């Protein structure tokens, strides 16, 4: 991996925190993600299972982590299985973790690090001492996958081999833990944000009429990778003019024209942690009066919404209050009628015509990170704040997005140093 090493104290603490949530005599099994094929002998790039990474720090394929805090033999309380390397693998794929390196990475003793092909031999010494087996699944509410994952295969295989155990869902426990960011995680998020800011500032001197969306994408990728990022935290959205009204526009193949606004939903990852930035900038370096008015309305909503990201608030209540602020701004822009808003169906508010997505989501190892919308906001949670106004009839879409860390003393805008005010954007583009 490109990123610098992460202290194994983070992963040791994460395992300890998980152990406190388990039922007595419980065993936990986590698998690395599959390497997905493309065509012929090709494959996609490897991306580690975030839960496995969260508990071990191991960023390598064919890894298995087994935890059994109550096992009577301490050798079987934390066990890590790694892909065994050889000279051929070293030649074709490069270095793989040794047992000593795995200990340094994870904090799991090298004495309980085995090779993956030894799994059955070692696991049989553990499983019959357990009453409960926690297995992992993707329980993100926005998950939609027709591909059978390694987790899904192993759930089926475990139930066939060990039918009399009590099976438990690991995902709710991981959602509970991962929602509260540890100090080391905040540091990694801040580094992803810092790299993202450098990329964005680079663009402000590059964008002008005639450049192509993909050229902007290339500038960002250059800046991100040169600073130890894998690259984009998610597929970049670089949307000029009417393209900005397509929420998940990914083609990035149009030429930027004078008078247009570019919506940039682009950010870097670092150490598997993700920033999530959106800015809207004028191709010519100057906004028109109408563009300024819409931009300022979005900025006003973002500032008011950010104030609500504090301990104790609830997800649905928060979004309802943000909707009221957006209604007022849309009325001021002449896009909504005050009297019609007063008579609207509360379950189908009129503002949704121009602002049809949520204001915030959890952020962390996943861009849309795991968490529970029914859990009140707590110190240590990190949310995006990303209102937008999309006026298809005008070919204008503006969205702004920052990343907010909640603390007991208020919130901290991790992107406070990234230009967002109209005057600042224009000044930097016209240096």
Structure keywords:
alpha+beta, 6-stranded mixed β-sheet, 3-stranded antiparallel β-sheet, 16 strands, Peptidase_M24B_aminopep-P_CS, Xaa-Pro aminopeptidase
Q: Your description of this structure?
A:
This protein is α+β, with helices and mostly antiparallel strands. The two termini are 37 Å apart. The chain has helices at residues 8-19, 50-56, 87-92, 99-106, 119-127, 150-161, 171-178, 183-204, 213-225, 289-308, 315-332, 338-342, 422-429, and strands at 26-31, 64-67, 78-82, 113-115, 132-135, 166-169, 237-240, 261-265, 269-270, 273-274, 278-282, 382-385, 388-391, 396-399, 402-407, 410-413. A hairpin with a 2-residue loop joins strand 15 (402-407) and strand 16. 34% of the residues lie in helices and 15% in strands. The protein contains 13 helices and 16 strands. Helix 1 packs across helix 2 and helix 10 (289-308) runs antiparallel to helix 11 (315-332). 39% of the residues are buried. GO terms for molecular function: aminopeptidase activity. It comes from Larkinella insperata. Pfam families: AMP_N (PF05195), Peptidase_M24 (PF00557). Belongs to the peptidase M24B family.
**Rg over CA atoms:** 24 Å
Question: Which sheet architecture does the biggest sheet show?
Answer: 6 strands, mixed
* Average of pLDDT: 96
Find the structural class using helix and strand composition: alpha+beta
How would you spell out the order of helices and strands?
HEHEEHHEHEHEHHHEEEEEHHHEEEEEH
Oligomer: single chain
Fraction of residues in helices?
25-40%
Low-confidence stretches: none
Spatial sequence of strands, sheet with the most strands: 4-3-2-1-5-6
Strand tally: 16
Shape: globular
State the helix count.
13
End-to-end distance: 37 Å
Strand content bin? 15-25%
């Amino acid at each position: 991996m490109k990123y610098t090493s992460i202290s194994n104290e983070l992963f040791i603490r994460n395992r300890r925190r998980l152990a406190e949530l388990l039922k007595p005599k419980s065993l936990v099994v986590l698998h690395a993600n599959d390497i997905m094929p493309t065509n012929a002998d090709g494959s996609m790039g490897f991306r580690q299972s975030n839960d496995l990474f969260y508990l071990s720090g191991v960023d390598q394929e064919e890894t298995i982590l087994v935890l059994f805090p109550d096992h009577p033999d301490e050798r079987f309380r934390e066990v890590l299985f790694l892909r065994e390397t050889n000279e051929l693998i070293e030649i074709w794929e490069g270095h793989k973790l040794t047992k000593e390196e795995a200990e340094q990475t994870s904090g799991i003793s090298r004495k309980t690090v085995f090779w993956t092909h030894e799994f059955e031999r070692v696991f049989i010494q553990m499983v019959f001492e357990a009453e409960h087996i926690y297995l992992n699944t993707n329980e993100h509410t926005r998950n939609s996958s027709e591909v059978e994952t390694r987790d899904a295969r192993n759930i089926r295989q475990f139930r066939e081999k060990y039918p009399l155990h009590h099976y438990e869902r690991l995902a709710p426990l991981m959602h509970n833990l991962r929602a509260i960011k540890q100090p080391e995680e905040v540091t990694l998020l801040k580094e992803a944000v810092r790299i993202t800011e450098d990329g964005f500032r680079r663009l402000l001197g590059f964008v002008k009429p005639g450049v192509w969306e993909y050229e902007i994408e290339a500038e960002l990728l250059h800046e991100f990778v040169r600073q130890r990022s894998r690259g984009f935290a998610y597929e970049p959205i670089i949307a000029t003019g009417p393209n900005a009204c397509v929420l998940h526009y990914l083609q990035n193949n149009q030429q930027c024209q004078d008078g247009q606004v570019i919506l940039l939903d682009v950010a870097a990852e670092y150490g598997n942690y993700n920033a999530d930035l959106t800015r809207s900038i004028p191709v010519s370096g100057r906004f028109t009066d109408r563009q300024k008015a819409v931009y300022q309305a979005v900025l006003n909503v973002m500032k008011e919404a950010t104030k609500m990201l504090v301990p104790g608030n609830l997800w649905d209540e928060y979004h309802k209050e943000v909707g009221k602020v957006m209604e007022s701004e849309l009325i001021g822009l002449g896009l909504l009628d005050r009297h019609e808003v007063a008579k609207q169906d509360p379950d189908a508010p009129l503002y949704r015509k121009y602002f049809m997505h949520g204001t915030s989501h959890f952020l962390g190892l996943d861009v849309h990170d795991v968490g529970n919308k029914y859990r009140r906001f707590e110190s240590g949670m990190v949310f995006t704040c990303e209102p937008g106004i999309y006026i298809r009839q005008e070919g204008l879409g503006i969205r702004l997005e920052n990343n907010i860390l909640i603390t007991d003393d208020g919130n901290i805008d991790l992107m406070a140093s990234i230009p967002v005010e109209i005057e600042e954007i224009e000044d930097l583009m016209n240096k």
